[in-house]
Amino acid sequence: MPIPQARLDALVQEARDTHSSALIVMQDGRVLIDEILDGGRDRPIETMSVTKAVLSLLVGRAVTLGHLPGADVPISDLYPEWKQGRKRGVTLRHLMTHTSGLQNMPGTMPEIYPSPDFVQLALCAELEQAPGTHFAYNNKAANLICGVLEQATGQKADDFARAELFGPLGIENWSWVRDRAGNPHGMAGLSLRPRDLARLGQLALDGGEVDGAPLISRGWIEESTRPATPLDNEMGLLWWMLFAWRRYTITETQVRNVAELGEPHSS
Fold first, then answer.
1. Which of 98, 127, 96, 122 has the alpha carbon at shortest distance from 111?
2. In the predicted model, is pLDDT for residue 244 greater than 70?
3. Where are the domains of the chain?
4. 20 to 30 A from 24, CA-CA: which of 2, 17, 129, 261?
């Protein structure tokens, strides 16, 4: 059923009133709204923690190509140094559902951003909880997933994205922040044009297919976009299962604090 134009107009006005940078709305694969609202040009915008959902698509592409067997692969299969002690029980699923038990500070500034190597920082972290026993949002674990992808595919996560996800979708104008060791950030740092972010959403809605051809297996899309841990029924594999009627408001103070930091961050 078509969305009434009055409702679309009201949505655009609300986006303007709340100082949104851009708004794109699609229905059944058709673009209904595609507007830049902050006076700027059409350009890549930092996706913050939505980077994690894109990372889930990349893992799904790696699984589809046979680079990874699935979400339950032990991290020690890719990093043998974790075969000792409790870390041998940590799986990719644990990293993707924030249930790894890895030590992690709530904010990213004290530990993660000062580190020259985000992957090594995660590899060296102690376990605070046994894997799979506690849910705790963990940016450090998300960064390690980029290392997992590199170990499995032989490519940095952003290079793998260029070849196997963004390229097939015709996404060309984007950037991904790397740490000083050359690792793409897993927790945030990916900048995409709004319409390209919408393309990725459409890919998920289409069960991983592009023009009728599978890019990511439908099984992975279904697994990653439903509750994936009994510890939190709103957490898929790096996707949040949030109800549509929830509202989140970004205040002027939050925007100012981010601008004063002068670098991307995730919370």
1. 122
2. no
3. 1-41, 43-261
4. 261
